[in-house]
Amino acid sequence: MLVIRADLVEQMVAHARRDHPDEACGILAGPDDGSDRPQRFVPMENAERSPTFYRFDSMEQLRVYQEMDANDEVPVVVYHSHTATEPYPSRTDISLASEPFAHYVLVGTRDPEHHELRSYRIVDGEVTEEEVQVVENYMFAHTGTPDVPDKADVPDPAAP
């Protein structure tokens, strides 16, 4: 199951709407601590600028992955949009899936009034759809793992 904050969903959907009719793409980074909770929205440029295909720009991807490494982060979610079809991974999406621990989220924008959001695990070419739980924060999300507050829920001790 993917547990994800509502603000991150809103940012992915806004990015998908902004880039429509081309596919939008990006990553949600999270701590490399096994929590499997995305924290940071990282929109990326679709180097293909296409309504039917996406590809991260290789230089931008290198920079983003170096930044994640420096911050002890991993790509918890790899997302992109489908602008005219069902949000299900295409053969190309499946063949390019290279993050076995990531959630692959597809945002469907074919309906201008409503979006579709679906999440998958893609490992060795096998696609498994998973439930998505959208929460306001991770403090009280019921995931079967110990609840750890996300960064937005922890008061800053230096704050007045």
TrEMBL record:
Q: State the superkingdom.
A: Bacteria
A single Pfam family it belongs to is Prok-JAB
Q: Where is the MPN domain?
A: 2-126
Which lineage ranks, top first, belong to the organism behind this chain?
Bacteria, Bacillati, Actinomycetota, Actinomycetes, Pseudonocardiales
Species of origin reads: Actinomycetospora lemnae
**InterPro entries listed in its UniProt record:** JAB_dom_prok, JAMM/MPN+_dom, MPN, VirAsm_ModProt
Which PROSITE patterns is this protein grouped with? MPN (PS50249)
> Which key words tag this protein in UniProt?
Hydrolase, Metal-binding, Metalloprotease, Protease, Zinc
What name appears for this protein in its UniProt entry?
Answer: M67 family metallopeptidase
